[in-house]
TrEMBL record:
It comes from freshwater metagenome. This is Cytochrome b5 heme-binding domain-containing protein. The keyword Flavoprotein does not apply. SMART domains: Cyt-b5. Gene3D superfamilies: Cytochrome b5-like heme/steroid binding domain.
Length: 279
């Protein structure tokens, strides 16, 4: 049976369809305009878990990037998709953004466009096109994914195939998670440890959430965490109002009411997490 990726299932989530037509959700991850290099981009801690990474560009020469971590011998599965709608569908392959995958050893692979396979995603009523796929056994370490635009365009890069598990994404740091330390602790050089800068220290307060209550900057509190939903506004299949109604407030109850029957609604929010709400 041929596995397909169903694009934009509820807020840029891509579904994976196997013969029977049963769809499972890919977790959304939207790249920001500041994430221009792999070191600045988000890190997917487990690259085997399914993510749909969205990159939008307004002109040629722009760059966005992200990273994904793998263990030796795990499956590296990557797909390149676009919405089957103008302007993207009207672009020739040479005008679409390039994707370069760099392995931990430094070897590079450029995604080749080998197909234009149509897929209709029934949940959002959206047509998508597969343009390329890449599969291999992974090296142990961190892979970099660098996207460079050649014109105005928006694409989705699907990474990983395991569904049903919420993956971890690290933003705002260049470091991967460290291995577990040795059972024999080393002496601490200073008796007064230096505080580590964290989002919690500056604090995502309710006051800050209320201040970001517009279409230009839309924050919301859901189940004790603060999310920046700005990039979701224009892509919600139910209309902009469904996201704008959550801006600047505690949207826990409203979000839950709109996702009754969804076994894991929090997976939809993963790529937009800012941090916990400060007490």
């Amino acid at each position: 049976m041929r596995k397909s990726i169903a694009g934009a299932l509820a807020f840029l989530i891509i579904g994976s369809t196997i013969g029977s037509g049963v769809a499972n959700a890919h977790q959304p991850l939207v790249l920001s305009d500041s994430e221009t290099t792999a070191s600045k981009g988000p890190l997917i801690v487990d690259g085997t878990l399914s993510f749909a990474v969205r990159a939008a560009f307004t002109k040629a020469g722009q760059k966005k990037a992200f990273r994904a971590q793998f263990k030796e011998g795990e499956e590296l599965a990557v797909q390149y998709l676009i919405v089957d709608k103008k302007p993207e569908s009207a672009l020739r392959n040479k005008s679409l953004p390039t994707l370069v995958i760099t392995s931990p050893s430094g070897s590079k692979v450029t995604m080749k466009f080998t197909e234009r396979t149509k897929f209709f995603e029934p949940y959002g009523g959206v047509n998508y096109l597969y343009l390329g796929r890449y599969n291999s056994k992974a090296q142990g370490g961190i892979y970099s994914f660098e996207i460079t635009s050649k014109s105005r365009a928006a694409i989705t890069i699907a990474v990983g195939e395991k569904e049903g598990v919420v993956g971890e994404v690290i933003r705002g740091t260049n470091e991967a998670p460290k291995p577990v330390a040795s059972s024999t602790p080393k002496p601490v050089a200073s008796s007064t440890p230096s505080p580590k800068p964290t989002a919690e220290q500056s604090g995502y307060t309710m006051e800050k959430v209320r201040a970001n209550n517009s279409e230009a900057s839309c924050w919301s509190v859901i189940d004790g965490n603060v999310y920046d939903l700005t990039k979701w506004i224009g892509s919600h299949p139910g209309g902009r109002g469904n996201i704008l109604s959550l801006c600047g407030k505690n949207g826990t109850t409203e979000f839950a009411s709109k996702h009754r029957g969804d076994p894991n609604p929090q997976a939809r929010l993963k790529g937009f997490l800012l941090g916990p709400l400060a007490s």
